[in-house]
Amino acid sequence: MGDSLTESRTEPTLPAPGGQPGAEFRSPAGTPAERGSIGTQREGRTEPAEGHEAVTLLERARAEVDPVLRAALGTLPAPMRRVALYHFGWEQADGSPADGGSGKAIRPALVLAAASALGGPEVRAAAATAAAAVELVHNFTLLHDDVMDRDTTRRHRATAWTVFGDADAILAGDALQALALRLLAEDPLPVSRAAAARLADCVVELCAGQHADTALEHCVPGEVTLEEVLAMAEAKTGALLGSACAIGGLYAGASDEEVAALDAFGREAGLAFQLIDDIIGIWGDPRRTGKPVGADLAARKKSLPVVAALVSGTPEAAELAELYARPSEKEDLDHIALTVERAGGRDWAQIQAADRMARAMQQLSRAVPDPESAGGLLALAEFVTRRSS
Amino acid sequence: MGDSLTESRTEPTLPAPGGQPGAEFRSPAGTPAERGSIGTQREGRTEPAEGHEAVTLLERARAEVDPVLRAALGTLPAPMRRVALYHFGWEQADGSPADGGSGKAIRPALVLAAASALGGPEVRAAAATAAAAVELVHNFTLLHDDVMDRDTTRRHRATAWTVFGDADAILAGDALQALALRLLAEDPLPVSRAAAARLADCVVELCAGQHADTALEHCVPGEVTLEEVLAMAEAKTGALLGSACAIGGLYAGASDEEVAALDAFGREAGLAFQLIDDIIGIWGDPRRTGKPVGADLAARKKSLPVVAALVSGTPEAAELAELYARPSEKEDLDHIALTVERAGGRDWAQIQAADRMARAMQQLSRAVPDPESAGGLLALAEFVTRRSS
Which of A161, A207, A214 to mutate to probe the B interface, most B CBs <10 Å? Predict the structure, then answer.
């Protein structure tokens, strides 16, 4: 879960409301996305307004969920609280205040947007506790993933384990999971029980995703299948986005079918995000400066475009396998990126991403047929996948 | 939590029912325990019957809870299931079946005994899910503690992290916590909500206890106070025993006061256990062979008798501080043990243990005034502290 959504590598600065909205997600010409609802739904909306809408939704979610999160963290014993407040970006390592950097609250925003889409403002307000619980689970997995992956930077700061040691980072993560499920256990609404069961199931899936990620990195490149990498990405990135949407639906009293469609919407959007994130990890993002292009290749990461290239059966696939077996040298990175591209890895990932977004939109229209009501979820899905490739 | 109750160092073989019951917990002459209810309650019972009762209760708890545990573990994705089944002693590392060794089920037995004491057999049956949840939480903390403490042996087998690596042991622990709270979220009884909140709170306290344990081991011996070590032991060992009893009470519809008394009963019994375990860690247990006497001293562990000796203000306290500052040498261990004893550490721990058991019995009589009904909880408390010193 080291590179889960918008947290590790991407962490883009939110565009100022009304400012440059950035390049929107674009489906490559002739891809399946054109057949999906994505174009249809988006035609009725102006793109700057959409970007603005997502930013507003994220800021609003942060404002609604932060008090719940802060109150929950405030109940922790001092040693765990210290690590948690540091991890959330609310304190420096020495305990002095810090101003945020706690992430963009995509998952709480999805909970609240789904609750709002199917239940209106009252349900949205009632779902704030669940939104905070989802964010706590997300952060618990980040704390643990950073320990396992030995990642040293998170949200532009040193990771918790590098500051407080492995033990305290593990314990703080354990405590955040407990806090998440305690919030739901103490939420008097009857639906909180189903939300807790769903969130607990999601934790298990996130663990399976992190396991698969670690295991895949230890495989010989030629042994990894696309299905395995897609399944890993779904468990690691898609599952919690799906659960966030599903839990919002539960609070709105959605039917099983609607909840399933919301879950599928979040999962597909999460996969689209991961595909685009992987593309950026190889070819960079011209809209952002400071992003180390080729970092994933240098780390010999078996990202989705790379695995697509490796299994392509092209002559470049064999070349890529050879290149990946060699020790990393900086001058090779451009050549490796070109080889992945020639083997079709880039096109495949772009088409897949478009396809996943199309599927996400189909699921969304199934869960929330009224386009007006679906607007918030749509804007958030487009926000997380809004990056040039 | 590395040496939590009956799991790390002690793990005595259950005496055969009706067989040699072993030395019962004995309060040193003239200690506060004589003023407690412990003697009174125990006088009416024959000691062999008591030992037999605890063994029967533990075996019965195992039989009732294991199917719930196995079903829950069966829902895990394969990689996490594999680690969990190994950790529970139900599979070998290669996935072939193993026959148990999953611990003595003290905590589930306490849940069920408390439910039974205040609610009878029907409540006992209804509390099986909660008992399994408590056992899952216990095992989640063991998995993580072993990673943090680098402990290599647990229940006479290699610890999970030594077999599967740190990452999978951490992930399996994370999944077990989720599973515990999912079991309660899916338990249709309304009380399961309060049980979940209490169990989640307990997880946070267990984390704080493990943090304190690690932190205390890094302190200079002279800086550690008895209050700190007692608080650590209560959080690390007492909290989950207390929660187990309290949760059993919740299922029986106990009043807040009764639940609080059950919690206090478990906590005090847990502290009594820890004190006696620490005594055994220094002076050994003549009833058991193969127990490495002095292991805690060799590791320079700041166990309760050692800290009591260090803060005693006696000339031996200064000598002990010096001895503890030196590198460990095998020939010194007898001398260190004698110094702790001369500084009063052994007597203090024995008196404290007796006092804690007396307090436990007082709390028990408050929660369950009928001695007949309280018999199961009493037998379990005496079982866990039943060891010669």
Answer: A207
Task: Record the tokens describing residue A28, joined without a space.
Answer: 């490559």
Closest Cβ–Cβ partner in B80, B140, B186 for A197: B186
CB A249 within 8 A of CB A259: yes
End-to-end CA separation in angstroms for chain B: 22
Asked if B295 and B307 count as a contact pair (C-beta separation under 8 A), the reply is no
CA distance B187 to chain A (A): 9
Both structure tokens of A299: 């780390």
DSSP character at residue A91: B
Which residues of chain A lie closer than 8 angstroms to B144, CB-CB? 170-171, 174
User: For chain B, what is the total number of helices (H) and then of strands (E)?
Assistant: 17, 2
What is the rounded distance in angstroms from the CA atom of residue A208 to the CA atom of residue B363?
Answer: 43
A185 contacts B194? CB cut-off 8 A = yes
- Provide CB contacts within 8 A for A136, sequence distance 6+: A69, A72, A176, A177, A179, A180, A183
Predicted pLDDT of residue A186? 97
**Which alpha helices (DSSP H) does chain A contain, by range?**
37-43, 47-74, 78-87, 106-126, 128-149, 160-164, 166-186, 192-217, 226-233, 239-251, 256-283, 295-298, 304-310, 315-325, 333-342, 345-367, 371-384
Three-state DSSP class for A77? coil
> B253: which residues sit within 8 A by CB, 6+ positions away?
B118, B119, B123, B191
Please report the ipTM that was assigned to this predicted complex.
0.87
Is the CB of B200 less than 8 angstroms away from the CB of A215?
no
Q: Does B194 sit within 8 Å of A193, measured CB to CB? A: no
Taking only the tens place, the pLDDT of each residue in A321-363 is 999 988 877 778 899 999 999 999 999 999 999 999 999 999 9
Q: Which residue of B has its CA nearest to A78?
A: B208
DSSP class of residue A108?
H
What average pLDDT does this structure show over B301-310?
Answer: 95
- From CA B137, how far away is CA B110, in angstroms rounded? 14
Q: For residue B212, what are the β-bridge partners?
A: none
| B14 secondary structure, DSSP code | P
Provide the 3-class DSSP secondary structure of residue A125: helix
| CA angle, residues B371, B372, B375, in degrees to nearest 5 | 80
**pTM for the model:** 0.88
Could you tell me if B211 and B286 are in contact, meaning their C-beta atoms sit under 8 angstroms apart? no
Structure tokens at A308: 């697509």
pLDDT tens digit sequence for A288-326: 644 467 778 988 899 999 999 999 999 999 999 999 988
Other CB atoms within 10 A of residue B49 CB: 12
- Residue A79: list chain B partners with CB under 8 A: 208, 211-212, 215
Tokens for A97? 């205040």
Which residue on chain B is closest to A212 by alpha carbon?
Answer: B79
Contacts of B353 (CB under 8 A, 6+ apart): B25, B271, B272, B275, B276, B279, B385, B389
Question: Helix B128-149 vs helix B166-186: angle between axes, to the nearest 10 degrees?
Answer: 160
Contact B77 A208 (CB under 8 A): yes
Q: How many CB atoms lie within 10 A of CB A51?
A: 23
Instruction: Output the CA angle B240-B245-B248, nearest 5 degrees.
Output: 120
Q: Which residues of A touch B (CB under 8 A)?
A: 75-77, 79-80, 140-141, 144, 147-148, 166-168, 170-175, 177-179, 181-182, 184-186, 193-194, 196-197, 200-201, 203-205, 207-208, 210-212, 214-215
Residue pair B246/B266 in contact (Cβ under 8 Å)? The answer is yes
